Amino acid sequence: MFILNTTADHGHPLDPTDANTLGLAAAEGVERHLRHRDNHAETPLIALPGLAGAVGVAAIHVKDEGQRLGLGSFKALGGAYAVIRLVLEEAGARLGRPADIEELHSREIRAIAGTMTFACATDGNHGRSVAQGAQLVGARAAIFVHAGVSDERVAAIARFGAEMIRVAGSYDDSVREAAQTAKERAWTVVSDTSWPGYERIPGLVMQGYTALVREALRQMAEPPTHVFIQAGVGGIAAAVAGYLALTLGEQRPVFTVVDPARAACLFETAKAGHPVTVPHDEPTVMAMLECYEPSLVAWRILSRVADAFMTVDEEDAVAVMRRLANPVDGDPAVIAGESGGVGLAGFLKAAADPAVKAALSIDATSRIFVVNTEGATDPGKYREIVGRSPAEVLSEGVA
């Protein structure tokens, strides 16, 4: 399914709050924060000229977030960043003076962090980031996971010392349970989705994501003409689209949001022109994107600066994992998890449909940008789908 953005807000400037959250000054602050992370390094921007030639476009670039901060996902930029920001803000309030990132490991700051507990719901990757952030500062983390989160992903979060709480039902059920429990116990919720009255912290999470698009623009010889970004609740799509709109202005690329067909909350929201909750269907293999309600902040941004919305099917997600693991014409292999290659899957589906291709003005001069949002965060599932382990794929090099 594919639709152009025909909402009344399309093309309008961002809300001033969102512009402040995702603008240049904020993004520079995120990069300053990252310089104080021990294992920080810019993730690679991978060119796929063989695939670009086969599809008939000028370039395809993949920002590989599977290598981000040791967590295997772009989510490493959001949850941990928000936790650290909130600890420093609380320390500033208690100490009566601003607390700087350079003081993060001081005895004073760690003593304050030790009194704080951060809670969130997760499909896997966001919870891992929040748990890592809490461990870094000496705080506690309580992570709520729904029935569909694999034991392997739960274990990957628990290794950061987080308390793991299983919730019956879906991701959205775990969001509600986390919010209710946190309210009862005076914990701080660090969610990557937002709801009425709860916007600032999800905004900080999205602010962390600006680092990946800022890096990508530096790494490209020319900015992209088209961007395809996958969406769960919409956080990364909104962060990338918002930052590009603010920094590139009239030269911003055509931006398409890609949803799983089985959890297409943003597609249906765009279709309706207002936030909607979609009914639960069969689980999707795109587990990190299995969300049935959009983030209100993300929708506020995307309604203005996303140009189109589309869905991909289960077989599209699986096919792109295998295609990236078995590259063509000398392209490097890319390890993409079940949700990692969905933006690329959306582009390939759009390029293969003459009507969609024309609607998005994709041609031989187009420069495509996508984000591999996760590596093999569930190695067992990756091997099951691709037929080889991540190490085996990389050791074999190009096809």
From TrEMBL:
Residues 39-357 form the Tryptophan synthase beta chain-like PALP domain. The keyword Lyase applies. Coiled coil: none annotated. One of its GO terms (molecular function) is pyridoxal phosphate binding. SUPFAM superfamilies: Tryptophan synthase beta subunit-like PLP-dependent enzymes. Keywords: Lyase, Pyridoxal phosphate. This is Diaminopropionate ammonia-lyase. Its cofactor is pyridoxal 5'-phosphate. It comes from Metarhizobium album. PANTHER family: DIAMINOPROPIONATE AMMONIA-LYASE, PTHR42937. Gene3D superfamilies: 3.40.50.1100.
